[in-house]
Specification:
CATH topology of the largest domain: DNA primase DNAg catalytic core, N-terminal domain
Radius of gyration: 30 Å
Helix content: 40-55%
Shape: globular
Number of domains: 5
Number of strands: 16
CATH superfamily of the largest domain: DNA primase, catalytic core, N-terminal domain
CATH architecture of the largest domain: Alpha-Beta Complex
Low-confidence stretches: 1-12
Largest sheet: 5 strands, antiparallel
Length: 610
């Protein structure tokens, strides 16, 4: 079996096994993951907060000796290849190529690597995006094509030419085919341009047209310097004001931040989160180069984990209107879930940072930054201003709202500080508020415990299992399959025993198709020339499936009883379950045969009707 497969032969790149193994062997997984996650030594392993789900207590573990990672919280796991697949949104071949280039391993010749995949690769999309960015930039600096766009940037937005060039800004002409024709001249096809979200296709004529037209253009650049997407803004009040690239093989908007490619170099102390491109550019031009923005979407847990990679403090600077404040509340919650220190910037006399700097200058903005408030101060001020504290019933409502807010904080120290502030504002004893907060926390804890219990019961019964949905049909057999596979993954002697026939076990003995497929992959890799290597399984499975397979291995490694009797017992359970299933199927077939025979006799009028 070669290093990558698909249902259709030759549909993706097929790297040879020895090449994949060399790439993994030459990749320092500690250094690789350390670029995305803050890791701390814990014995022979390293631990940190998982980059794939939000958590406050680190449950993400990296084993440099095994060159594997695993999260005990969300069960993501695998090799360096799997990690890159999940972090960079790459398929297996592109992740291998990513690591090969990083480690300086020459790619194999095309004849050895096999056929190139038919779909549009991330690399191809990045090439198109770079060509498009150069085109948009050239249009902006062309007086005949980009005069309107340049006037908008220079006169309306007061940008210097240096700032325009620094951010690689451009202009999309008011023409349906300008970019399309240019990209065709470079050899790109309609299908590729559509996949890169640079062009659309008319349902009426079937003709390809430019996705961005008559807009100033903002290239979205990732921390590695790749142009991954675009944002386009109109120069008047027409709608939609902003048009952003959809997700492509090179881009997922829930993971990227505008200007992070610049901010990452100076954001260790803090980062500023803005609403839009213009605010970020204005802040950078004024010297606040640690400002970023989400890309036409609300902040997501994935964004929060990106922030946690670069800094521990985020100052939210959203518009002062209701929509902006509601978005700020959500951002505080999402960022808080990954342990970030979150503060909120209040700007008086301006609706956004861009307008504030124009009116009052960078020094006043710097002062406002230093006076930014905690999330609690921001929310409590809104609560207190909503009620008339001179009226008893209103004061009670404000007290309940503040206690509910304080109860949400995980840190006991924070709760004590905020209780003191609330008690002073309400002119009430701290102990009275504290009792209410503790009651609310116990109530919330009971609700969480009940929810976790329900989820645990569902997990035990395999309900909602998207990786192996058949497991719910026979929980005992599925558990035995996991035991068998976990032991096969760890111990070569068990693989040898199965291969030689010393232990009677075959693919047909497995009840669930996913576990059957894993068994076949393990044994096929075991029989290959290079022997079994876990990282090679990544060619045949999705990153989520690899995480499930790794979980089977990790679960067995944590147990002390993994001897031959455990393996043989699990095989016996598995074979018995399969035998029972086969007998049940035989009974069903016999019953159906009898029904068909009876139906046939009825049809021929030969049934005794007495």
């Amino acid at each position: 079996m070669s290093g990558a497969t698909d249902e259709e032969e030759g549909s993706i790149v097929r790297f040879p096994d020895h090449f994949i193994q060399e790439v993994v062997d030459r990749t320092d997984i500690e250094e690789l993951i350390g670029r995305y996650v803050s890791l701390k030594r814990a014995g022979s392993n390293l631990v940190g907060r998982c980059p794939f789900h939000s958590e406050k207590t680190p449950s993400f573990s990296v084993s440099p000796t095994k060159k594997m990672f695993f999260c005990f919280g969300c069960h993501a796991g695998g090799s360096a290849i799997t990690f890159v697949q999940k972090m960079e949104n790459l398929d297996f071949p592109d992740a291998v190529e990513f690591l090969a280039n990083r480690a300086g391993v020459p790619l194999p010749m095309e004849s050895e690597a096999g056929q190139k995949k038919e779909g549009v690769s991330r690399k191809r999309v990045l090439e198109m995006n770079l060509a498009a960015a150069k085109f948009y930039r050239a249009c902006l600096f062309d007086p005949n094509l980009g005069g309107e766009g340049m006037r908008y940037f220079r006169q309306q937005r007061r940008m210097s030419e240096a700032t325009i060039k620094h951010f690689g800004l451009g202009f999309a002409p008011n023409n349906f085919y300008s970019l399309t024709n240019h990209m065709h001249s470079l050899g790109y096809t309609d299908e590729e341009l559509i996949a890169a979200c640079l062009c659309g296709k008319s349902q009426k004529t079937g003709k390809t047209y430019d996705y961005f037209r008559n807009r100033v253009m903002f290239p979205i650049i990732d921390p590695s310097g790749n142009v991954v997407a675009f944002g386009g803004r109109v120069m008047d009040d027409s709608k939609p004001k902003y048009l952003n690239s959809s997700d492509t093989p090179a881009f997922k908007k829930s993971r990227h931040l505008f200007a992070l490619n610049f901010a990452k170099n100076c954001c260790a102390e803090r980062m500023i989160l803005c609403e839009g491109y213009m605010d970020v550019i204005a802040l950078h031009a004024a010297g606040f180069e640690y400002a970023v923005a989400t890309l036409g979407t609300a902040i997501t847990p994935e964004h929060a984990r990106v922030f946690s990679k670069y800094t521990q403090k985020v100052i939210i600077s959203y518009d002062a209107d209701d929509a902006g404040q509601n978005a700020a509340n959500k951002a505080m919650r999402v960022l808080g879930e990954v342990g970030m220190e979150v503060r909120v910037l209040k700007l008086s006399g301006a609706k956004d940072p861009d307008e504030f700097i124009v009116k009052f200058g960078p020094d006043r903005f710097r002062q406002a930054l230093e006076q930014s408030r905690t999330g609690f101060d921001h929310k409590s001020e809104k609560i207190l201003s909503s009620y008339d504290l001179s009226i008893g019933s209103e004061k009670l409502k404000a007290s309940n709202a503040l206690c509910t807010l304080i109860a949400e904080y995980w840190s006991a120290v924070e709760r004590e500080i905020y209780l003191a502030q609330a008690a002073k504002a309400l002119d009430l004893p701290v102990e009275a508020l504290k009792n209410t907060v503790e009651q609310l926390r116990r109530k919330h804890q009971r609700a969480r415990t009940e929810q976790e219990s329900r989820e645990a019961q569902s997990t035990l019964k395999n309900y909602g299992d998207r990786i192996n949905p058949e497991a719910v049909k026979d929980v005992r057999a599925a558990s035995a399959e996991e035991t068998v596979l976990g032991l096969l993954l760890i111990f070569e002697e068990y693989r040898n025993a199965v291969e030689k026939g010393d232990i009677a076990l075959g693919a047909s003995d497995f009840v669930t198709s996913f576990h059957r497929r894993v068994f076949e992959s393990i044994m096929e890799r075991h029989r290959s020339e290079g022997g079994f290597r876990f990282e090679l399984l990544g060619a045949d499975y999705t990153p989520d499936e690899i995480g499930r397979i790794q979980k089977m291995e990790v679960t067995r490694q944590q147990l002390t009883q993994n001897g031959p009797e455990v393996f043989r017992s699990a095989v016996a359970v598995l074979r018995q379950a399969k035998s029972d299933e086969d007998h049940q199927e035989d009974d069903i077939r016999a019953h159906l045969d009898r029904l068909r025979e009876k139906r046939s006799r009825l049809h021929k009028g030969k049934v005794d009707t007495k």
